[in-house]
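Dear support,

Our group has been running a series of protein-ligand predictions, and this particular one with magnesium ion is the one our PI (initials K.S.) wants archived with full inputs and outputs. We had some confusion internally about which version of the output was final, so please treat the block below as the authoritative record. The input we submitted was:
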Amino acid sequence: MIRFEHVTKRYADGTTAVDDLSFEVAKGELITLVGPSGCGKTTTMKMVNRLIEPTEGRILLDGEAVADADPVELRRRIGYVIQQVGLFPHKTVLDNTATVPHLLGRPRKAARARAAELLDLVGLDPSVYGDRYPDQLSGGQRQRVGVARALAADPPVLLMDEPFGAVDPVVREHLQNEFLRLQSTLHKTVLFVTHDIEEAVRLGDRIAVYGSGRIEQLDTPATVLGAPATPYTAEFVGADRGLKRLAVTPVEAADLEEPPVVRLDDPAARAAEALAAAGAPWAVVLDADGTPYGWVAAEALTEAGNGPATVRGRARPMAEAVQLGTPLRQALSTLLQHDAGWLAVLDGDRYRGVLTPAALHGALRRATTADAADLARDEVALDTVPRT
Ligand SMILES: Nc1ncnc2c1ncn2[C@@H]1O[C@H](COP(=O)(O)OP(=O)(O)OP(=O)(O)O)[C@@H](O)[C@H]1O
Ligand SMILES: [Mg+2]
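Confirmed final output from the archive:
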């Protein structure tokens, strides 16, 4: 969709801002450009919509050289969120957002209606915020208006230059989540600039790690973190890259353990036999629908008790479950917040197995070292019996 062919930008004073850049952004792909200040990220971006002309090489948009396109027509196809937002201070939020569609010839009323939809889409209620001026918004709200404005002409391509740069980490994470949600339905082709490796990892289908004027590595977040191509990249992504990688490595079916499974309405004696046969100290308890209810310890099943001896009277509920595909970091965090020592893992509604500390440890090793495939489970065996 966007193709850079040997693109170089040299400024009049001799600064080479971008040096022989070649790469391609696929349709619907989001590539994050990450690197230190002054490494050429903004220059790369501005050459796409011809705010800057390359010194050498060419850029193709949908197979067509942007150098041959009319700049005005070109910019209609490319939404642009600039570093520092750049809203018109004397226009209301609604009018800021409606500007582009109006310029594109939509009647004012239709442009404003569309603007209201877009504000809604980025999580700003137009009836609350539409008539405010930019200086009556928080930084994060201004950045959302910037995103809404870039989406206003419904361009297939978005250039976003540190769109969430000026907000605190909590708001930033919120904006990132909203943007990911939007992107999962809009499928724009996006170049997204950031200083922040965590943001790059979180948002990018691929990450381009910039050195000075050049891309040092362009690959998926998991590969950039797991196998940095150069010492520069390794240093840039940080010594804690193993931890960062947990955010992009999902829980897989192969990570799970499968303790015996009993049903709430099973007779306690039969359940006890099943556990004894498996040599297991506890079992997962599912309800009649097959949804996890909790767990039951072997001793609890054999204790004498009152009333009908089914698993129900002996089981303990366990509310926490995670979905297959959940990032390991989130699974670990959920596990740490609960006492049980394990988590049920679901695939949609279906119970798939449990994540124990030992299983998680294996998964973490898979995520953090490129060659951990040979790690044996029993090397890391831990006591995984839930504590009461
Ligand atoms: N008009 C100009 N004339 C000369 N040099 C320039 C000009 N514009 C940018 N540069 C230089 O080109 C290099 C790349 O600038 P660019 O704005 O692309 O960096 P960046 O990666 O976006 O940095 P930041 O993260 O700080 O926004 C820098 O060294 C900058 O000083
Ligand atoms: Mg910049």
